[in-house]
Write a structure and sequence with these properties.
The chain is of the alpha+beta class. It is built from 7 helices and 9 strands, in the order βββββααββββααααα. It has 2 domains: 108 residues, no CATH class; 152 residues.
Length: 289
């Protein structure tokens, strides 16, 4: 899997290379002067390591997920797909990598605290707006009564479920776009997908419609004009629809991270005494499994 050795200088921070047969060569600074040492672990047949300088209070080696640039064909990498907590992390990364969802959800969270939730005729003759921090009618500010409790309910029972739903939807779309994606899906994975995508989105949509109607039923036109009522339901449906139409190029953050791994393993070549490199550019050797 790997050839481990050391050297007596610290001219370069990382001296990592990959041979033509896939074997990794990982050098490390010396212990005598630089006090560097390496912790190597093998978890379920997958090798991981961490380079540390002596004197730290905690030394932690992350075994799973393993960095893409250190994966080798000799390892049972298929076992990584059996780790559920890695999938949760990947779903959040995928969601954040799409600009539309990232800025939309950030905007919803910020607007929840500063923007008007409902606007309309709060009485027969007076037009006003309801905020988290109070109510404004005819230019008069009325202190918050139960708006803080309403805001907590909206945040917990709508915004968080919508975020989780979009995470799962982006993840499933990303899996579908993979060239080696399997068409066979287990009953457990299908049930999880139905629960975390379709049922969760249906719940979030019905909740915002019902909750907004309950809060604006006595106000004229408020359910139609308010940002946190029918407009929010339409916008949520738009985000859900876009998550089903994503292309592989839309996942920008994940691609830039993967490309940085490629460039890192390509640049970190070890030079021999005669000035020749052990390895030349081999971008195709590092794959994101």
């Amino acid at each position: 899997i790997v050839f481990l050795n050391g050297h007596l200088h610290s001219l370069r921070k990382h001296l990592y290379a990959r041979h033509s047969d896939g074997l990794l060569e990982l050098e490390l600074e010396d212990w005598k002067v630089n006090r560097k040492f390496r912790i190597v672990t093998i978890d379920a047949g997958i090798l991981s390591f961490g380079d540390f300088r002596f004197g730290q209070s905690i030394y932690a080696v992350i075994c799973n997920p393993k960095e893409t640039k250190f994966k080798t064909p000799r390892e049972p990498l298929y076992r990584l797909s059996q780790s559920t907590h890695i999938r949760i992390r990947l779903r959040m990364i995928l969601l954040c990598s799409v600009d539309l969802f990232y800025y939309s959800l950030i905007g919803l969270a910020v607007y929840h605290f500063i923007g008007p939730w409902y606007i309309g005729y709060l009485s027969d003759d007076y037009f006003g707006a309801i905020f988290l921090w109070g109510v404004i009618v005819r230019g008069i500010h009325l202190p918050s009564d139960i708006q803080s409790y309403v805001g907590i309910i909206q945040f917990l029972f709508f915004l968080i479920p919508l975020t989780l739903c979009l995470c799962s939807s982006c993840y499933n779309r990303y899996i579908q776009l993979q060239p080696i994606a399997s068409l066979n899906e287990s009953y457990c994975n299908r049930a999880i997908r139905i629960l975390t995508v379709y049922i969760l989105f249906g719940y979030a949509l019905l909740f915002v419609l019902y909750w907004s109607y309950m809060n604006t039923a006595s106000y004229k036109l408020a359910w139609i004009l308010s940002p946190f009522s029918l407009i929010l339901a339409i916008f949520s449906f738009y985000l859900y629809g876009k998550s089903k139409q994503l292309k592989i190029g839309d996942f920008k953050l994940l691609q830039s991270t993967t490309n940085s791994y490629h460039c890192s393993i390509r640049r970190n070549t070890i030079e021999m005494d005669n000035g020749q490199n052990i390895i030349t550019s081999r971008r195709a050797e590092v794959k994101n499994h």
